[in-house]
Design goal:
Elements lengths: L7 E5 H12 L7 E5 L1 H5 L3 H11 L3 E4 L2 H9 L6 E3 L7 H6 L3 E4 L2 H13 L5 E6 L14 H9 L4 E7 L11 H20 L6 E3 L3 H6 L7 E4 L10 H4 L6 E6 L2 E5 L4 E2 L5 E2 L4 E6 L17 E4 L2 E6 L7 E4 L10 E5 L5 H6 L5 H6 L6 E5 L1
Parallel strand pairs: 1-19, 2-3, 2-9, 3-4, 4-5, 5-6, 6-7, 7-8
Antiparallel strand pairs: 1-10, 10-18, 11-14, 12-13, 14-17, 15-16, 16-17
Helix pairs in contact: 1-3
This protein binds pyridoxal-5'-phosphate (PLP).
């Protein structure tokens, strides 16, 4: 791994392979793997991540929005792509790029059938989502008759899969709730499948579901955060490797006398002599203001340097009083030693939020 000379997000594609293979090792041989690459591949770069996973044998991809799917197609992704949260206004684009919609309520089902009929499509692959307790997106059990009546009237669409999403798969205190979601899903999907002349795939598990609920793997699983190296528990984190390392470099070192202040609004006031390093990364890059004023830290020469004062748009200042370092030296924001999960914890958030918030301004470097 090279030494950073500017702010970079280094992506270790070998670690991605390790994580993919680890998650796959939890599955039966015939269970498919859908790789979730929404939000720029959790900040890592959706096209590069998806291309690599396509080579490694991922069966399916998912994104949240249609434009994310378009970007994957333009980057040469040929595997099926499920759009988890399509908006009606973009459905023609979805079809133009052979993306597959999640249809989650009567309104979007109707709108999609209308557009599919106009376009004289036949058997276009769609995915029907049921709400089993997350109360976010999805048909309810009582909609089954409606879905069937709409499906019977048309041959424009074909249900490729029926799916649902777990609300608390990482939280074993909620095991009873989760098992109830799984039982509901089994029930609902059976009622629907019994009325169809073919058998759609079933899927329900995100990363924590893959790890905690093998009985809910069904025909396919939808792995996201685990691919990027986080497993939602200490035990699982040990088996996964964070793929992204966020590094930067010391732009300038200041000596701060007792009584001086550092940064905007003079939020930090020094009560003794200290040294600070200014780093070229700020809240516009995704290191939010909540990491300022002593909450977050970076690692320089293996030692923690707390962020002092307010986080600026393009810079942070860190306390390096006891660290032997120079301008031009590398600073690690997170990586394999200090994980994004650990940094996120300093502000009561989760790895998902920190890694997906990293701005596109940060250069991504892919290590083969
Ligand atoms: C984001 C998402 C996933 C992936 O979840 P992870 O916890 O990152 O594995 C799976 N399914 C749906 C519906 C999602 O929105």
């Amino acid at each position: 791994m090279s030494k950073a000379q500017e702010t970079v997000l280094e992506i270790d594609l070998k670690a991605l392979k390790h994580n993919f293979e680890y998650l796959k090792s939890k599955l039966d041989n015939n269970t498919k793997f859908l790789a979730v690459v929404k939000a720029f591949g959790y900040g890592s770069g959706a096209c590069e991540i998806a291309s690599h996973l396509q080579e490694l044998g991922a069966d399916y991809f998912a994104v949240a929005y249609i434009n994310e799917g378009v970007a994957l197609r333009e980057a040469g992704i040929t595997k099926p792509i499920l759009v988890l949260h399509p908006q009606a206004v973009n459905l023609k684009t979805l079809i133009a790029y052979s993306l597959e919609p999640n249809l989650y309520n009567p309104k979007i089902l109707k709108e999609f059938i209308n557009i599919a009929s106009e376009g004289k499509l036949s058997n276009y692959p769609v995915h029907i989502k049921f709400n089993t307790g997350l109360n976010r997106l999805g048909f309810c059990k009582n909609d089954i008759a409606y879905i069937l009546s709409e499906i019977e009237k048309t041959d424009t669409i074909k249900i490729t899969s029926i799916f649902s999403h777990l609300a608390a798969s990482e939280d074993l205190n909620e095991k009873e709730f989760t098992l109830n979601q799984i039982a509901n899903f089994n029930l609902i999907s059976k009622i629907l499948i019994d009325k169809l002349a073919y058998k759609p795939m079933l899927h329900m598990c995100n990363t924590s579901g893959i790890l905690n609920y093998p009985e809910a793997h069904f025909d396919m699983v939808r792995g996201g955060i685990g691919l990027y190296g986080y497993g939602n528990s200490e035990e699982e984190n040990k088996k996964l490797i964070p793929i992204a390392s966020l590094k930067t470099v010391i732009s300038q070192i200041h000596s701060i006398e007792k009584g001086e202040s550092v940064g905007y609004n003079r939020a930090f006031k020094s009560n003794s002599f200290l040294k600070t390093a200014t780093l070229p990364i700020g809240h516009a890059d995704g290191i939010g203001r909540q990491y300022g004023n002593g909450k977050g830290f970076v690692t320089i020469k293996g030692q923690q340097a707390p962020i002092i004062g307010n986080v600026c748009m393009d810079m942070i200042m860190v306390n390096i009083t006891n660290i032997d370092c120079s301008e031009g030296d590398e600073a690690i924001i997170f990586g394999k030693e200090i994980s994004a999960e650990q940094l996120a914890e300093t502000t009561n958030t989760i790895s998902y939020e920190l890694i997906t918030a990293l701005s596109q301004r940060i250069k991504r470097v892919f290590l083969k």
